[in-house]
Write a structure and sequence with these properties.
Helices cover 34% and strands 24% of the residues. By secondary structure, the protein is of the alpha/beta class. Strand 2 and strand 3 (35-36) form a beta hairpin. Bound molecules: 1-O-phosphono-alpha-D-glucopyranose (G1P).
């Protein structure tokens, strides 16, 4: 069984659900407490043992590349002023040289197309996909749970959680066939079904482990829900041909692609913050 060494993180999305905040900055750089979203997602991947990060960027996303690089003037100034603790925090954001690669999605054709754009950088090996809208603060994170499940059952995996039935139209939804502990075998997957048509209330979370065979399917994948090339549609085809499981990852995920989810993440992580938490919790009580 080949190990999961790489994660594809699509960062080309326009962030329309959180406009105007994302008018001139990438949504992946919006901060939850003191770190940008992308930092949480990369950190979760590292915690899962992943060595190589592949970012699928787009126009106007250059600031993300700068985030993962040295900022010489800033670092020199912090050093000169002996701001050692902050300097250490800043230096931690710079990965080992070559550990982050970039490719570009040249048109917003959908998540499936974004993942397909990473095919040459991934090559012929299984890989993970993490969507940076959704962050998991606790460790071990969801990707670690996925990689552990992969070591047990191999094949392909999607993370899922239960949501109220009226929310199914926002997500990919699975049709469960059988369940063993937190692993589900599926008869299918469907992207953004209306609640009346949804095969279950298990929605797909933005964490995946996929075999490279997905790329051939994505190459031929026609437009699906919303007129976009959907990863879910190609995964649905792969589900018939290869081992495919859904892993139930309950709780602790924040959908920061929505304004409410973003606020909840800031409130929860702020309240749990080692330095700011106590004062912030008192303030939350005061205003509620
Ligand atoms: C994407 C996927 C969807 C998944 C969701 C999780 O949708 O297509 O299957 O449930 O991410 O965040 P998007 O949010 O890009 O519309």
């Amino acid at each position: 069984m080949k190990p999961i060494r790489k994660v594809v993180i699509p960062v080309a999305g326009l962030g329309t659900r959180v406009l105007p905040a994302t008018k001139s900055i990438p949504k992946e750089l919006l901060t939850v407490v003191d770190r940008p979203l992308i930092d949480y997602v990369v950190d979760e991947a590292r915690d899962a043992g992943i060595e190589q990060v592949v970012l699928v960027t787009g126009r106007g996303k250059g600031a993300i590349e700068d985030y993962f690089d040295h900022a010489f003037e800033l670092e020199a100034t912090l050093k000169q002023k002996s701001k050692t603790a902050i300097l250490e925090e800043v230096e931690k954001t710079v990965p080992t040289a070559g550990a982050v690669s970039y490719t570009r999605q040249q048109a917003p054709l959908g998540l499936g197309h974004a993942v397909w754009c990473a095919r040459e950088l991934v090559g012929d090996e299984p890989f993970a996909v993490s969507l940076p809208d959704e962050i998991v603060a606790r460790r071990p994170g969801f990707l670690r749970q996925m990689v552990d499940a992969y070591k047990e059952v191999g094949g392909n995996l999607v993370a899922v959680e239960e949501v109220p039935k009226e929310d199914t139209a926002k997500y990919g939804v699975i049709a469960p066939k059988s369940r063993r502990d937190n692993l589900i075998e599926m008869s299918g997957m469907v992207e953004k079904p209306a609640p009346a048509d949804a095969p279950s209330n298990f929605r797909i979370i933005g964490r995946y482990v996929l075999q490279p065979d997905i790329f051939q399917l994505l190459e031929k994948q026609g437009a699906g829900a919303g007129g976009e090339i959907q990863l879910t549609d190609s995964m649905n085809t792969l589900n018939g041909a290869q081992t495919f499981h859904a892993v139930i990852c309950d709780g602790g995920i924040y959908d920061c692609g929505s304004k409410l989810g973003f606020l909840k993440a800031n409130a929860a992580l702020g309240a749990a913050h080692p330095e700011l938490g106590a004062e912030f919790r008192a303030y939350l009580k005061e205003i509620s």
